[in-house]
Design brief:
single chain, 501 residues, 62% helix, 5-stranded mixed β-sheet, alpha/beta, 2 domains, 22 helices
Length: 501
C-alpha cells in the first residue's frame, strides 16, 4: 500500500469517527492548552520544578528526596530553550498521556462513550488541573502518567498473557520505580489482586521476565542508594516524624478528608448528571468479580496503606501522596452505578466538565494574578544583584555557592547570574555533590526567611567553621509585585560565609 493510499484510508477513518469521540479529542486538546498556559501567569517556576532542573543537571542516579527520573525529564525539558513554558508543557503532556491510557483501560470495563466520559469527569479532580500551575513538573506528575500505563498493561497481561505486554509492563514499572518509591503501593495492590484472582501469575515465566526487567532498570538507583547509605530515605523519615498538632487519629482523618476534597468536583459532575438526566441510582447487580475487585483494590489499597502509616506515626501524611491514585474514579462511577448514555447525556456531562474547568481556571488564574507571594513572584534578579553587590565589596570572585532554604536558594541557582551551585539539604548526610575544600576556598551565600534556620543551614553545610565563628544573619527588605503591579513589602535574611584560603 502506497503513502497516498494510506493517507486516503486515514482520512476515511477520520470521517467515520463518532461525534462523541470528536468532542472527546477536542476536550483533551482544550484541557491541555488551558492548564499548560495557567502557569505562565507566574513570574518564577514552582519550587518542585526548580529543584528538578537542578537535580537533573547533576545527571546522577538519585537526589536528596527521590529517584532521578522526574529530575532528568525536568532538566532535559528545560535545557534546550531555558523557557518556563517547556516545564508547563511537559507537565500537561504527561497528564494527558495518563488520560489516554486510562481511557484505553476504561474500554475493558465500559462501552466507548462511558469510557470517554470516565476521563472527562476527571476534570473535577483537581490533581489534574492545579498541579501544573502550583507544582509545574515533579514526580507526582510523572505518576499521573505512569500509574495508568502500568494498570493498563497489567490488566492486559492478566487478560491475554501476551509476552510483549509483559515486557512493556516490566519497562514501565521499572521507570516508575525510578521516578518515585510510591509506585510500590500500586505494585502491592497488583500483587494482592493477582494472588487472589489469578494465582497462576506467580507460575508464569513472563511474570518473572517482567520482574527482572523492572529490577535491572531500577538497579542503578539501588546501587546509588547503597553507595550513599540510603540517605534519601532520611527525607521520608523526617516527613513522617513531623508532628504538626496532629495525632494518631486526626492525621489519617485529615488525609482521608483531603482525598474527598480532591475528588469532590468529579463526584459533583457525576451526581448532577444522575439527578438531572437519570434520577434512579442503583448499584451494579451482575458484574465480573475480577473486574469489580480490580478497581477497588488498585484504587483504595494505596490510600488505605497511607492511612495506616498516618495511624502508626501520628504525623502529617501529605494529601497529594494519595491524589495520584484516583485515575480510575470515573471508571468506577460508571461501572458500579450503570446507566444508559445517549448523545444528549454525553454533551450534558461534557458541558458540566467545561464549567468546572472554567471555574477552576478563574479561581487559580485570579490567585496567580493578585497574589504577592515569593513562591510565584520572587524578584530573583533584584535580590541576587543586591547580595552580589555586598559580596563584591569584600571579594573579587563571583558567588559560586548558594545555600539555605530551597524555596529561596533554588530560584537563584536557576535564574541568577552565573547560576551558583546549590548547597542542598541532604538531611544530615554529607552532600555528595559538593566539594568541601572548594566550598571552603570559594565561600558561600545563605538565604532564608527564618534567621535561626539559616544559622542551622550554615553550620550543617560548613562544618569546617570554628565553633567561635559568629553567624549574624542580615535582614534584607524588598518589594514583591503581582501581575497587576501592586506591591507588598517582604523581607528575608542572608549571610555570607567568607572564602578561607
Amino acid at each position: 500500500m502506497g503513502n497516498a493510499e494510506k493517507i486516503i484510508m486515514n482520512l476515511k477513518l477520520l470521517k467515520n469517527i463518532s461525534e462523541e469521540k470528536k468532542l472527546f479529542y477536542r476536550f483533551l486538546c482544550i484541557h491541555f492548552l488551558v492548564w499548560t498556559c495557567i502557569g505562565l501567569i507566574r513570574a518564577v517556576l514552582p519550587a518542585d520544578s526548580l529543584e528538578g532542573i537542578y537535580w537533573g543537571s547533576l545527571l546522577d542516579f538519585g537526589s536528596p528526596k527521590h529517584p532521578p527520573l522526574a529530575a532528568w525529564i525536568t532538566y532535559f525539558s528545560y535545557l534546550p530553550f531555558k523557557c518556563d513554558f517547556s516545564i508547563y508543557f511537559i507537565s500537561q503532556l504527561f497528564i494527558v498521556t495518563g488520560f489516554i491510557y486510562t481511557y484505553r483501560l476504561a474500554k475493558f470495563f465500559l462501552d466507548e462513550n462511558k469510557a470517554m466520559l470516565s476521563i472527562i469527569i476527571l476534570e473535577g479532580c483537581w490533581i489534574y488541573t492545579y498541579i501544573t500551575g502550583y507544582y509545574g513538573f515533579n514526580p507526582d506528575v510523572v505518576l499521573l502518567c505512569l500509574l495508568p500505563v502500568i494498570t493498563f498493561y497489567f490488566y492486559k497481561c492478566m487478560k491475554y498473557n501476551n509476552p510483549p505486554d509483559w515486557i512493556k509492563l516490566g519497562i514501565i514499572v521499572g521507570l516508575s520505580l525510578l521516578n518515585k518509591y510510591q509506585t510500590i503501593l500500586l505494585i502491592i495492590g497488583m500483587a494482592v489482586w493477582a494472588g487472589v484472582f489469578n494465582p497462576k501469575t506467580y507460575k508464569n515465566k513472563y511474570f518473572y521476565i517482567a520482574v527482572i526487567i523492572a529490577f535491572f532498570i531500577f538497579l542503578p538507583h539501588i546501587l546509588w542508594l547503597i553507595k550513599y547509605d540510603f540517605f534519601p530515605i532520611l527525607y521520608y523519615d523526617e516527613e513522617l516524624n513531623k508532628i504538626n498538632g496532629y495525632n494518631h487519629l486526626t492525621a489519617p482523618l485529615m488525609f482521608l478528608g483531603m482525598q474527598f476534597v480532591c475528588i469532590i468536583g468529579t463526584l459533583a459532575v457525576y451526581c448532577l448528571f444522575r439527578f438531572v438526566k437519570a434520577r434512579t441510582i442503583e448499584f451494579i447487580k451482575d458484574y465480573d468479580r475480577k473486574q469489580f475487585w480490580f478497581l477497588l483494590i488498585l484504587t483504595f489499597l494505596p490510600c488505605l496503606i497511607h492511612t495506616i502509616i498516618g495511624i502508626i506515626y501520628g504525623s502529617d501524611i501529605r494529601p497529594r501522596w494519595g491524589y495520584v491514585f484516583w485515575y480510575m474514579l470515573g471508571i468506577m462511577l460508571f461501572y458500579f452505578f450503570p446507566c444508559k448514555i445517549d448523545n444528549k447525556d454525553f454533551k450534558f456531562i461534557l458541558k458540566s466538565a467545561y464549567i468546572v474547568m472554567l471555574i477552576t481556571f478563574l479561581i487559580l488564574g485570579t490567585l496567580f494574578t493578585v497574589e504577592k507571594n515569593y513562591r510565584s513572584r520572587y524578584p530573583v534578579a533584584e535580590v541576587f544583584e543586591d547580595i552580589q553587590t555586598v559580596w563584591a565589596e569584600n571579594y573579587n570572585t563571583p558567588v559560586k555557592y548558594i545555600g539555605g532554604d530551597s524555596e529561596w536558594s533554588f530560584p537563584i541557582t536557576i535564574y541568577g547570574e552565573g547560576h551558583p551551585i546549590n548547597i542542598m539539604d541532604t538531611f544530615g548526610y554529607k552532600n555528595p555533590w559538593i566539594d568541601e575544600e572548594d566550598l571552603k576556598k570559594s565561600g558561600a551565600v545563605f538565604i532564608d526567611r527564618n534567621p535561626y534556620r539559616l544559622i542551622k543551614s550554615v553550620k550543617k553545610a560548613c562544618g569546617y567553621l570554628n565553633e567561635d565563628f559568629i553567624i549574624s544573619p542580615v535582614k534584607y527588605n524588598f518589594k514583591i509585585f503581582n501581575a497587576l503591579n501592586l506591591s507588598r513589602d517582604y523581607y528575608t535574611y542572608y549571610f555570607i560565609v567568607p572564602p578561607i584560603k
